[in-house]
UniProtKB/TrEMBL annotation:
Subunit structure: Part of the 50S ribosomal subunit.
Cellular-component GO terms for this entry: cytosolic large ribosomal subunit
Domain Large ribosomal subunit protein uL30-like ferredoxin-like fold: 4-54
GO molecular function, one term: structural constituent of ribosome
UniProtKB keywords: Ribonucleoprotein, Ribosomal protein
BP GO annotations: translation
Family: Belongs to the universal ribosomal protein uL30 family.
CDD domains reported for this sequence: Ribosomal_L30_like
One matching Pfam family: Ribosomal_L30
Signal peptide: none
Name listed for the protein in its UniProt record: Large ribosomal subunit protein uL30
HAMAP family (UniProt xref): Ribosomal_uL30_B
UniProt xrefs under NCBIfam families: rpmD_bact (TIGR01308)
Gene (name only): rpmD
Length: 60
């Protein structure tokens, strides 16, 4: 199964509470922090909600 490298590139300050919770649940804390997430429908749905705050790369 492929994995996704997710990097927070914009601050979550002054964002909707739902978006802040998604970023926290992903394990991202500060700008430029990076996590590896599995590539599945649940992850893709969460990433779609915060697409304007993150950068996503596929890891093989």
């Amino acid at each position: 199964m492929a994995q996704l490298k997710v990097t927070l590139i914009h601050s979550v300050a002054h964002r909707l509470p739902k978006q802040r919770k998604i970023v926290e649940a992903m394990g991202l804390h500060r700008v430029n922090s990076t996590v590896i997430q599995p590539d599945n429908d649940a992850t893709r749905g969460a990433l779609f909600q915060i697409a304007h705050l993150i950068k996503v790369e596929e890891v093989k």
